[in-house]
Design a protein that fits this description.
Order of helices and strands: EEEEEE
Strand order of the largest sheet: 1-2-3-6-5-4
Helix content: under 10%
Number of helices: 0
Number of strands: 6
Amino acid sequence: MLTNTDATLYHRRYNPVTRLDEWGCTYIPAIWWYEAEQSSVTTEGRKTADTSTVRIPDITVLVKKDDYLVKGQCSVQMKTAKDLAGTEHFKVSAANYNRYGGNPHIRVTGGA
């Protein structure tokens, strides 16, 4: 699989002791990152949104909805999503594990 960058995945974990969410991160050394603009026409007019699609060749990485994916290696100690300001990132809306075929990968989509 072709790759064009690396990324850092931030995932939320619940801490039962503090009863708060904590964010952990995983560095992914090789991914394919693609950005596009989508638009739709509603009763309120035309709406546009930037969307990102990422393909991760390492299918052992655990990606789920509401995680955050940051382009490049990121060392931010995240407490809230606002901590990622100034980075190129998106919130994961779907993660599809394509485990079969000649090119197994994880297809991750999301938007700002």
